Amino acid sequence: MTTLLAANLFFNGTSYAATLPYAGIAAIDGLGFSSGDYALLLSISALVGLVASVGLGFLSDRVGDRRVLVLFAALMGALGFGLIYVAPSSLSYIIAYCVIVPFGGALFGQSFGYARAYYNARQPERAEFMITVLRMVFSASWVLMPPIAGWVAATYKVFDVYGLAAAAYLGSALIFLILLREPMARIGTAETKASGEAAADGIAPAMLMGIVGIVLISVALRLSGTAAPLAIIGDIGGTLADVGLYSGLAALLEIPFTLAWGFAALRWRKHTLIVWCGLIYALYMFLFTQAHSVSDVLWLQLINAIAVAGLMSLPISYLQEAIHGRVGLSTSLLDVVFVLAGLLSAGIFGLMASSTGYVPMFWIAGVLSTLGAVVLFLAHRVIGPRVAPAN
């Protein structure tokens, strides 16, 4: 089971690694979208993704078999990216990102929700650490795929990376088709109740404010993730292959730090670790504004990896504890955070993108990451002790 779940997360990471660095390039340079039009498209996609993620998260705690929802998300991702690959056009891009891909994007949250529910029911003492391990596997996919995707985009067409992503989604779908034949892999409402989890009524105030801090840091991540490939090509003078190298190097360095943060979470509180990661990431953003060559960007990936390894793994377990006994709905908060971050970052990108370059995006991202860390710190240092002294 662990091998299959890890393979699923590897394929899921592959789909992101193949497309995220090139989504803006494909839309703006390949299809002729303006920065404003692309930002609007991302906003619509984020709103649809919000509905899809919350809806599937709500259902996952009430269905008899979570595997069906994960399979559905995988097939939708394959359909959406396959459409862009087979028929690249403005219309197919809009249909894919605004209608189909948001449901495929829920595969990330649904996969971790299924995995957490499975380990809670079968091996509860390992549940939280195994989520960190699976997140590390997700990062490992970014080591292999970005150089391949960069070579494909530079040698053939940038739209061919969507074929790689569609194939990865099909790989995830095949894994859950296999799991549908395994009785012990069935996880639903019966198994959740059997694990002894009682449902809570809502989200504590400290957690709610903490989620706001996570959203702000995630906006910084998404904003820099959108702007970095464009800055490498437009401001620094790099190539598509350099974009792939930048993404792959960052992912390679993340792997050991992801595991290190997982061990740290066994000793220190997760929100404290996320605060430190947010501040480190802000430092990386400010240093990125001073980069003048691809080499400068590559050297900075060590700092980036330390921060991103924590920011992409620790919030998973943090959010999965938001609503006790509702691991599916709690995990959907991860998708909600991603969607809200995508929506807000798209708005900032649309307002700030100009002919002067993309460097101002990184100043904004640094400020947002710092602000998010401060909000998260205050949530648990001030509000948390006041409303829940017993904890």
UniProtKB/TrEMBL annotation:
PROSITE patterns: MFS. The chain crosses the membrane at residues 41-59, 68-87, 93-115, 127-149, 161-181, 202-223, 243-266, 273-292, 298-319, 331-352, 358-379. Pfam families: MFS_1. Keywords: Cell membrane, Membrane, Sugar transport, Transmembrane, Transmembrane helix, Transport. Gene3D superfamilies: MFS general substrate transporter like domains. Its main location: membrane. One of its GO terms (cellular component) is plasma membrane. It comes from the Bacteria. GO terms for molecular function: transmembrane transporter activity. Residues 1-384 form the Major facilitator superfamily (MFS) profile domain. It is a multi-pass membrane protein. It is found in: Cell membrane. Belongs to the major facilitator superfamily. Set transporter family. This is Major facilitator superfamily (MFS) profile domain-containing protein. It comes from Devosia insulae DS-56.
